[in-house]
Request: fold
Amino acid sequence: MGYVEKPMLLVNGIRLIDMAVNEVERAGLDAIFVTSRFTERTEKYLMDRGLEVFRGDGTGYMQDIQKALAEYRLTHPVLTLNSDLYYVVEGVVNRILSHYFAVDTPALTTVYPDGRHVGINIFDPIFGEQEEEKVILDESTVINIDTPADLERALWMSTLRREKDW
Reply:
């Protein structure tokens, strides 16, 4: 988006990072928020809220996740959420977790009907390459905000949600 850290974007008065925090808390999960030198405002915001933060070196999303996994010595399934998601429907993470525990694959990824990745994944760090279950979500559930048009769609959906008291 160029002008602001995406996790700090406001949609209907709520920061995208707060939406992720709310989904994690709603699911009752412990969380480690992975940041980098590119998300310093987000990092400070999370730390000011007393949340656990691990700073990666910013070489790439998965590289930073892998470094956090190693630092915390995590050996159980891990849920990753991109911090630029607008949750149109609350409780999406709970739905994804329920689906994950009902299948036999060690990994799960969420995709839109056209195959684009949503940004919610579960994998087991003790395995290397993993067979993954794909869960199809549409943008009436969660919007990955990558472009100004995505942000406009999220703003529109939040207005509909507020007006209709979804």
User: Anything to note?
Assistant: The chain is about 35% helix and 20% strand. The two ends are 28 Å apart (CA to CA). The longest strand covers residues 117-123. Residues 148-164 form the longest helix (17 residues).
